[in-house]
Amino acid sequence: MESDPQAERKEDIMLPGICTSCGAQIVYHHHLTSIPYFSDTLIVSMTCLECGYREHDAQCLSTRSPSRYILHVKGTAELMCRVVRSTAARIIIPELGVQIDPGPACEGFISNGEGVLTRVDKVLDTVLQRDDNTEEIVARIHERKQMIRDILDGKKEMTLILEDPHGTSTIDGPDVIIEELDENHDEK
Ligand SMILES: [Zn+2]
């Protein structure tokens, strides 16, 4: 709801908390972003000075039901669609064989299709750096990195799927398909 008085507060809110990794006293930063014609998004982040553990999450405040968002990227225009991924969400790009599951190490973020691909590319770079990669794995990674470049150039298509059981993630765009994640069909 746009009229929610809480949505008008734009300053950062700091709340004390406990590091989920080592138990030290830390401070959580809560930052509300209000983007015109887009749901308010809460960014929560913390860095533990004791152990270096970090958390970063982004949550849409307006979506509620468990949803699957499907964006068919046919060119560079769709790559500009806004993507909010909370840490509870799974990202799937079938064409790239990519599935990013929610987990303790994952980050929530506000980005767009291009930003998601850049993140996937960075993960591939990290995998490339392992010394136990076989030649076959290295070849496959380079193949996927090339595919990412082609999609970014608008030469290849992809499907971006975002599944969020908590309903706090979203993809915003005119051609985005939204499906209910569970069997219960609530009112739309
Ligand atoms: Zn810690």
Portion of residues within helices: 10-25%
> What does the main sheet amount to?
5 strands, antiparallel
Walk across the major sheet and give the strand order. 8-7-10-5-12
**CATH fold descriptor of the largest domain:** Jelly Rolls
Give the number of helices.
3
Order of H and E elements: EEEEEHEEEEHHEEE
Strand tally:
12
Which value, in Å, is the CA radius of gyration?
18 Å
* Contiguous runs where pLDDT drops below 50 for at least 5 residues: 1-9, 183-188
Mean pLDDT: 85
Question: Termini, distance in Å?
Answer: 15 Å
Supply the helix-strand structural class.
alpha+beta
Strand content: 25-35%
| Ligand types | zinc ion
Please, could you describe this protein's structure?
The chain has 188 residues and is α+β, with helices and mostly antiparallel strands. The protein is built from three helices and twelve strands; from the N terminus they run βββββαββββααβββ. The protein has two domains: 1-62, N-terminal domain of TfIIb (Single Sheet); 63-181, Jelly Rolls. It starts with 12 loop residues before the first strand and ends in an 8-residue tail after the last strand. Bound molecules: zinc ion. Zinc ion (ZN) binds next to loops.
